[in-house]
Amino acid sequence: MSQEKTSPRAIPLGATGPKVFPIALGCMGMSGMYGASADDEGVRTIHAAVERGVTLIDTGDFYGHGHNELLVRRALEGLGARRDELQISVKFGGMRSPDGAFIGIDCRPAAVKNFAAYSLKRLGVDVIDVYRPARLDPHVPIEDTVGAIADLIQRGYVRHMGLSEVGVETIRRAHAVHPVVDLQIEYSLASRGPEEKIFPVLEELGISATLYGVLSRGLLSGRKPSGPGDFRAHLPRFTGENGAHNEAIVERLRAFAARSNRTTAQIAVAWALAKQPKLVPLVGARTREQLDDVLGALAKPLSADELRALEDIVPPGSIRGDRYQAGQMAHLDSER
Question: What's the CATH class of domain 19-335?
Fold first, then answer.
């Protein structure tokens, strides 16, 4: 399954951040969020991504209760000198109970520094390249959270600051305290919300974005929840009437992909690359096979005619259902 290293143009993370490969690897799915996963295959997938040129790896301290950071550490230890080619992005603040339930967000300054200390230890690194709160803590001013990250940067424990799933006002307030290199935000054919207000503000302020959910958690590539351990089984887009409606759209998307000699995953990634060429899709490949599939989009860009035809198949708002359950949607600052 070895592939030649791809060398497309690098994308800068904001005005002050590093340049990275145009597709990033998200590792959340390697820690059971989509059902059972294999650690060895996860490590091999990270290594394969680096071999293909990927330079930005994303994790979170609450993925698998720390398992994901330990998995990334295993991968880093097997890279030798190539470790220096990578940027590691870490989300913090999500709190989980022993049974896996999410029980809140904590972005108090003391908590920020505590989380960072444990991430540094689990990852086995001296510095985190991009550090970001996973969500806005409604009980803590964003200035306080950002100030704590800025202190970590000044002391050499963090290189750059990012944000995740926050709206325009929060972006402006955070950036006024310390430069933000990128916002992590969900964006896909199925989720076009950031186009209206968020992307214009990022452009104005010189902030990039890492775009997660480009496949809408596998919806756009035709995947379905694999069992009770797969959190997609509880998401509105995969269930009931919404699921049936969306499946019909995905069938038309699959036919379009077949006509253009691409997979549906390649179509979804190619669309994001075409719509937001200055931003970086963050793909959650769990296996080397999935990785090869999504990276294949780089060699098959969409033409202008294909882009128009694709958006006729999946126009804005055509995919039904919110991207999270109601309780989680209520906590998304980016949706306000």
Answer: alpha beta
